[in-house]
Amino acid sequence: MRGAAIAKLKRYRCMSMHPTPVERAFQLARSGQHATVDEIRQQMKREGLDHAQVAGPVLLKQLRALCTESVARQAAEDEAKAEAEAQAQAQAAG
Q1: CB 64 within 8 A of CB 30
Q2: Is residue 75 part of a domain?
């Protein structure tokens, strides 16, 4: 019976195409746009999602680590982009 319930859940998830609150929290953490779990919860609230499910020490630790990593990655990408644009402008002016 457990396998049937999992298969039914997978079919439902494919049909709905909306992430669960926990999945959305991970998406937001990976985006690089949110530095803290509180920011993720605020965004989820704005989106009308139940942010109360974003709880528990293991989940919060994973989200904090993803936020830190993603914000650093986003900052590095932004810096590289700014450098490339500055070089292009210098070459165009030069």
Answers
A1: no
A2: yes
Token output for 61: 């630790």
**Residue reference for tokens 């009308």:** 48
Tokens of 77: 């990408």
pLDDT digits (tens, 9 = 90+) for 24-69: 999 999 999 999 999 999 999 999 999 999 999 999 999 999 999 9
Q: What is the pTM of this model?
A: 0.72
The pLDDT-based confidence of 13 (bands split at 50, 70, 90) is: low
Going 85 to 87 to 92 to 93, the CA torsion angle's sign is positive
Query: Domain range for residue 78?
Result: 21-93
Looking at the 3D structure of the chain, how many domains does it have? 1
Cα-based angle 8, 14, 18 (whole degrees, multiple of 5): 115
Residues for the chain: how many in total? 94
Structure tokens, 24: 């959305």
60 closest CA partner among 36, 84, 93, 94? 36
